[in-house]
Amino acid sequence: MQSPEQARSLVEQIVDAATRAGATAADAAYLGSASSSVEVRNGQLEGVDRSEGEKLGLRVFIGQRVASASVSDFSDDSRTALVERLIAMAKEATEDQYAGLAPKEMLASGDAPDLDLVDEHEPEPEALKERALAAEAAALAIEGVTNSQGTAASASSGLFAIATSHGFSGTSRSTGHGCTVSVVAERDGAKERDYHWMSARHLEDLDDPEAIGREAGERTVARLGPKPVKPGKYPILFDSRVATSLLSHLSGAISGASVARRSSFLMDRMGEQVFAKGIDIIDDPLRRRGLRSHAFDGEGLPVKKMKMIEDGVLRSWYADSAAARQLGIDPTGHAIRGPGGGPGAGPSNYYIAAGQRSPEEMMADVGTAILVTDMMGQGVNGVTGDYSRGAAGFLVRNGEIVHPVSEITVAGNLKDMFASLEPANDLEFKRGVDAPTILIPEMTVGSA
User: Fold this and answer.
1) What residues does the Metalloprotease TldD/E central domain cover (predicted)?
2) Computed from CA positions of residues 404, 406, 411, 416, in that sequence, does the dihedral angle turn out positive or negative?
3) Which of 72, 139, 287, 333 is most buried, most CB within 10 Å of its CB?
């Protein structure tokens, strides 16, 4: 993998070569990554993996015509051939009235903030093995857990660099540490599977492996002995692990590209009440040690903490420059790109602010409800908002868990779900997308 200085020089040089070869504008992106992982199963080593990779992508414009490609060979001959090929391709491309770099006057400038995304200590494979073994042992120690489906510990590092022909260049380094545990529990011949995982930029922020393993084991055992529930209308509580999926559906619906294509159920709702009053949904790319933190976006624009939903009102799209031009707005600083193709747009560290009530208070107040802890399938229509997904969890009555349930579906419409949902007060920042427990007062429950 290149050093930050080498990566920055690499993208600047190929952009300069493209403009000298006749491109009216160009940008380039470099992505380098390295990762190590160790997997164990039932106390035995299953595998040790190490991977490294680098790619350099170039996008060139001839007026409103654009072409892009990426290479993993950074030799002079390879880069020269890439520039020549893309210039030729762009000349033959169809004109795109929305194509172009981000507005020059909006580019980020000055020193990038220190977001503390790099842990300089890289653990040895033996340390990864010890972490995995400790997590698995903790899971297997939970009464009722009978087998392991594999436990992995990992460490990774990455480097991203971009340069544009109109004056921006920058680099960003990051590291990651992770642990994933998956186990099987059995009772009376019936088996259930579940898992738990965690990632962090710095090893010291990762939960102890024993805690990760216990969580996996306890979640799995709790699912044993599921019973059917009568189909009908129920209050639904999404636990924090699955509540994040609702935020993912929201980010898709407020994607500038989707709105520009008229393929979002929220396309005409800017400035309107979409959630209940008091609901804030926030995007924060500048969180220190955040899993999705970055000091500039994928087009070189500055980034900032933003309320996408403020007091229940929709305040912003996720729009890169091309989508912004279609919508007649400024780009929002949410561009995301890799080394190949042009940028898209989407969330960084993204969360719904905590509410006032605890999950226990919610459960005590809703009578008979379903607590959803796992979801399957992708039955969501982004155009209409219709929602139907497979689920598993627990029947709750008067605040007490009665028994596990599985092979059910929960259905509704995201417009109604968003308008009525209530977040609990148990928000924790442990992922790139975070949510507390979320209550939706009524959804339709059926058999899967």
Assistant:
1) 122-224
2) positive
3) 139
Is the CATH code 1.20.1300.10 the one for domain 4-220?
no
The residue behind tokens 């977040």 is: 423
- Cα angle value 354/355/361 (rounded, 5°): 120
At 251, phi and psi to the nearest 5? Answer: -65, -35
One-letter amino acid identity for 301?
Answer: L
Residue 214 amino acid letter: R
- Reply yes or no on whether the pLDDT at 206 is more than 90: yes
Rounded to an integer, what distance in angstroms lies between the CA atom of residue 334 and that of residue 362?
35
Q: Where are the domains of the chain?
A: 4-220, 226-448
Give me the pLDDT at residue 111, please. Answer: 77
Predicted TM-score of the model (pTM): 0.94
SS (H, E, C) the chain: CCCHHHHHHHHHHHHHHHHHCCCCEEEEEEEEEEEEEEEEECCEEEEEEEEEEEEEEEEEEECCEEEEEEECCCCHHHHHHHHHHHHHHHHHCCCCCCCCCCCHHHCCCCCCCCCCCCCCCCCCHHHHHHHHHHHHHHHHCCCCEEEEEEEEEEEEEEEEEEEECCCCEEEEEEEEEEEEEEEEEEECCEEEEEEEEEEECCHHHCCCHHHHHHHHHHHHHHCCCCCCCCCEEEEEEECHHHHHHHHHHHHHHCEHHHHHCCCCCCCCCCCCECCCCCCCEEECCCCCCCCCCCCECCCCCECCCEEEEECCEECCCECCHHHHHHHCCCCCCCEECCCCCCCEECCCCEEECCCCCCHHHHHHHCCEEEEEEEEECCCECCCCCEEEEEEEEEEEECCEEEEEEEEEEEEEEHHHHHHHCEECCCCCCCCCEECCCEEEEEEEEEEC
Give the model confidence (pLDDT) of 95-108 as tens digits.
Answer: 999 999 999 999 99
Residue 128 has φ and ψ, to the nearest 5°, of: -65, -40
**In this model, does residue 448 exceed pLDDT 80?**
no
Sheet holding 281-283, edge to edge: 313-314, 306-310, 281-283, 350-352, 433-434
Answer yes or no: is pLDDT of 254 > 90: yes
Residues 278 and 290 sit within 8 Å (Cβ to Cβ): no
Six token digits for residue 191: 């088996």
Beta carbons of 416 and 395 less than 8 angstroms apart: no
pLDDT bucket at 31, cuts 50 / 70 / 90 = very high
Give the number of other CB atoms < 10 A from CB of residue 3: 12
